[in-house]
Input
Amino acid sequence: MAKDKTVYSCTECGGTSPKWLGKCPSCGAWNTLIEAVAETAAPAAKNRFASLAAAQPVTTLADIDAADFERLPTGLDELDRVLGGGMVEGGVVLIGGDPGIGKSTLLLQALHQLSLTVPTLYVTGEESGAQVALRSRRLGLDGSQVRVLAEISVEKILATIEAERPTVCVIDSIQTVYSEQLTSAPGSVAQVRECAAQLTRTAKATGVTVVLVGHVTKEGALAGPRVLEHMVDTVLYFEGDTHSNFRLIRAIKNRFGAVNEIGVFAMTERGLKGVSNPSAIFLSQHAEPVPGSCVMVTLEGTRPMLVEIQALVDSGGPSPRRLSVGLDRDRLAMLLAVLHRHAGVACMDQDVFVNAVGGVRISEPAADLAVMLSISSSLRGKALPKGFLAFGEVGLAGEVRPAPRGQDRLKEAAKLGFSVAVVPKANAPKASHLKTHAKDFEGLTIHAVERIEEAMEVVRGLA
Ligand code: TYD
Ligand code: MG
Output
């Protein structure tokens, strides 16, 4: 096949150059030229006369029939939850995640389930057909009807999709696929973008659901899936510590559903198993309460989840370290300052480490109160009482601000047998509500606080 002409275009200003240069000749930015397929002259000529084309009919929004998307459930409930109910016809889903986290495993399991009712195609560029078969045997998917293609040329893959017409097609991974129209290596930004664009066009034209697998690389030298996020309908990220068994799938973008919904899986001998009640898995098992540990309820999408926050405060050197795992480090520095100014807890010359147990990442500020209580608990060497939990945002003035959907969080804690909660005043149920819904909060004593020093006071009173 004759190579089409390519040009190098600048990602900053859009300027082009016939050959690669370190510096963009148009805007002077460094290292921004990326190979792209040259636009042929024909469409440009057409555009010039675009104004001479006939006007097209326009519809009023209210008159357009808004049929809901038909969903195709994958049979894995946790995956369906993040997808917003299942795959959508012609939808393009990108699944990103570190190597070895379980993307291929999950998708093979999902395709197998789907293949019981519809035709499916698994395109593998990383493993041979035999390796995929071996994995499927290990997963216990005997007699699977999933069709497998080991190919990395996007032109051949597209031709196969046209011929096979699967309902769902998985490309594992987009970094291994290349287009013959470009000279750059597979995995480069230009190749990844071009191949994804071609696959997306095919998905929209044929109604095939395409799932792209993308590796996230630490240094970003290879094109990470980030360059694709705007092209696809749904972006899912696979997270979790490869050392622990739990994996979270998070929706970052979803044109067909809610974002920030998560699916929880456990990696087992026989692949990934959905965890339908994940609330308690992020608590470590202490027989007796230990200093520096505080449980909080975080909200992931629509689900409340209990997570243990651990802190270790230890005397440091001349420049003490502040480290956080699963929590924002800048926020930790801020909370330490608030703790000092408003609650009189000084950690100036101490190393402070905080950790969200189980490899979860908590981005919401509702973790503040639990972080601060665990730090002061570690500093004093005094454990918080058994069955204790706290949540709430803490502001720079020392005020404790409400967290969204506080009642749901409290209900979840009560359900799991927690007995004492320190929460922002606005999140505590009103006396009248408590009377009518006493059952929801059974066994849970709720302390409403407005300021961080008040929260400290309550904790001291409990000990
Ligand atoms: P894999 O799906 O190959 O990861 P990715 O495609 O994201 O790179 O999963 C790899 C890990 O999962 C591997 O280290 C082995 C583990 N694994 C299990 O623990 N149980 C299983 O049944 C399978 C198939 C894999
Ligand atoms: Mg893989």
